[in-house]
């Protein structure tokens, strides 16, 4: 409810927008400037009102308490992903989420644990061979293959093959190239025609393999829904399948890529995690999870989350008019020094039990509320299993790395990460 006490939204002035465009027009710089005005701030792009929300209490208000007021309003990847869970809204989204949610609980993930471990073993085998020969590996490519292999095995109960990998990467590259917020950058919609063709071929192949599988598969869940539910047809199976494959792998691979870059800069954190307890112990698992959590703090899965104000409301005491674009930015919230002490420092210990947990709304790498990422636990589990295997066994020596981050749908290392893998002299 809007009251007379609601104050005018602080906004960047037109001169600041002109200077921002003259300086190169990076969206992250515009949002950083707006954040300096407070936890709720704004700017205008043409006649569009944009509201940036970065304060924890205000984030909680938008995403967790009022998800029906601040809603997802279409998605620019819809031409590729159709009506899959990422792009769906309203009642169709609720039905689809209800169907898939049990597969991504702790209990549901156990059914796919053998597939996750098989994908981890395949990476370890490749890295052992590379360590023995001194081959320079593209870590980002290896991690991308791993993430896709995990999803493919969970969908089909078969290991990923190279032709399908290339098709999925081509589709994923098109998705990853989408700007996080195009109205600010002025970029036009991408041409997805080739990506759609690649994705469709991969989907057909996956469905054919899943029909032959004797083990539980995610596609099996979708195909059963198409047989039994009146609103679930084979087109929706394709859309959900592609959402899981194409939208799911890049975020995990990117997080792992950042983690290895951070460990290269802070090798003591690897040793601290491994010395927390013996292999297989709860203490080591918690320390490895802290590595992941801290990486996600610095480089959240979705660095920007747009919402649409379906009706006029108030956020943090400021009027937000109906029709406004509301931007949640975990990248900036996670780096707010008023919320996170020494926010630019990679310090996984802040996520261990001895440290004080931050307030609700201050950490949301997978989103918050009903539209939080359904695959969050799955992603963390596959990353944890990989790190439990490779961190004690290998010490990557980074030979080439990007000097900047790229800010598109994800925040990613803007270039390849090449490394020589050394076997760890003393496995901890």
TrEMBL record:
Keyword set includes Iron: yes
InterPro entries per record: Cyt_P450, Cyt_P450_CS, Cyt_P450_E_grp-I, Cyt_P450_sf, Cytochrome_P450_monoxygenase
Residues that hold heme according to the record: 373
Pfam families to which the protein is assigned, alphabetical: p450 (PF00067)
SUPFAM superfamilies recorded: Cytochrome P450
Known cofactor(s): heme
Top-level taxon of origin: Bacteria
MF-aspect GO terms: heme binding; iron ion binding; monooxygenase activity; oxidoreductase activity, acting on paired donors, with incorporation or reduction of molecular oxygen
UniProt keywords, alphabetically: Heme, Iron, Metal-binding, Monooxygenase, Oxidoreductase
Entry coiled-coil feature ranges: none
PROSITE patterns to which the protein is assigned, alphabetical: CYTOCHROME_P450
Entry similarity comment: Belongs to the cytochrome P450 family.
PANTHER family registered for this protein in UniProt: CYTOCHROME P450, CYTOCHROME P450 12A4, MITOCHONDRIAL-RELATED
The name this protein goes by in its record: Cytochrome P450
């Amino acid at each position: 409810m809007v009251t007379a006490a609601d104050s005018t939204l602080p906004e960047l002035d037109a001169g600041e927008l002109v200077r921002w465009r003259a300086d190169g027009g990076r969206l992250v710089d515009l949002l950083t400037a707006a954040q300096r005005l407070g936890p709720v701030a704004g700017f205008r792009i043409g006649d569009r009102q944009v509201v940036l929300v970065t304060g924890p209490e205000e984030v909680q208000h938008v995403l967790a308490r009022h998800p029906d007021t601040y809603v997802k309003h279409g998605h620019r990847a819809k031409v590729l992903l159709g009506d899959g869970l990422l792009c769906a809204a309203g009642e169709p989204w609720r039905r689809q989420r209800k169907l898939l949610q049990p597969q991504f609980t702790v209990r549901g993930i156990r059914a796919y644990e053998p597939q996750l471990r098989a994908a981890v073993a395949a990476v370890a085998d490749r890295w052992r061979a590379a360590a023995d020969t001194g081959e320079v590996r593209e870590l980002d490519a290896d991690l991308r293959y791993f993430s896709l292999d995990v999803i493919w095995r969970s969908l089909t109960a078969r290991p990923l093959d190279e032709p399908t990998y290339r098709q999925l990467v081509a589709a994923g590259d098109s998705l990853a190239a989408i700007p996080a917020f195009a109205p600010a950058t002025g970029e036009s919609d991408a041409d997805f025609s080739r990506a759609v063709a690649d994705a469709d071929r991969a989907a057909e192949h996956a469905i054919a393999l899943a029909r032959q599988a004797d083990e539980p598969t995610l596609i099996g869940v979708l195909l059963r829904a198409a047989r039994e539910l009146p609103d679930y047809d084979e087109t929706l199976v394709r859309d959900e399948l592609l959402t899981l494959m194409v939208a799911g792998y890049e975020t995990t691979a990117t997080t792992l890529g950042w983690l290895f870059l951070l460990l290269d800069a802070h090798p003591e954190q690897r040793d601290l995690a491994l010395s927390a307890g013996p292999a297989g112990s709860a203490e080591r698992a918690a320390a490895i999870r802290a590595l992941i959590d801290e990486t996600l703090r610095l480089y959240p899965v979705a660095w920007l989350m747009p919402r649409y104000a379906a009706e006029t409301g108030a956020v943090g005491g400021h009027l937000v008019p109906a029709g406004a674009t509301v931007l949640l930015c975990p990248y900036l919230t996670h780096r707010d020094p008023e919320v996170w002490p020494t926010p630019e420092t990679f310090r996984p210990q802040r996520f261990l039990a001895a440290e004080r947990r931050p307030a609700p709304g201050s950490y949301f790498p997978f989103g918050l509320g009903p539209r939080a990422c359904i695959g969050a636990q799955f992603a963390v589990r596959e990353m944890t299993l990989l790190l439990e295997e490779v961190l004690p066994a290998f010490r990557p020596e980074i030979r080439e790395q990007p000097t900047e981050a790229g800010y598109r749908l994800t925040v990613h290392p803007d270039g390849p990460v090449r490394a020589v893998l050394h076997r760890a002299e003393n496995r901890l």
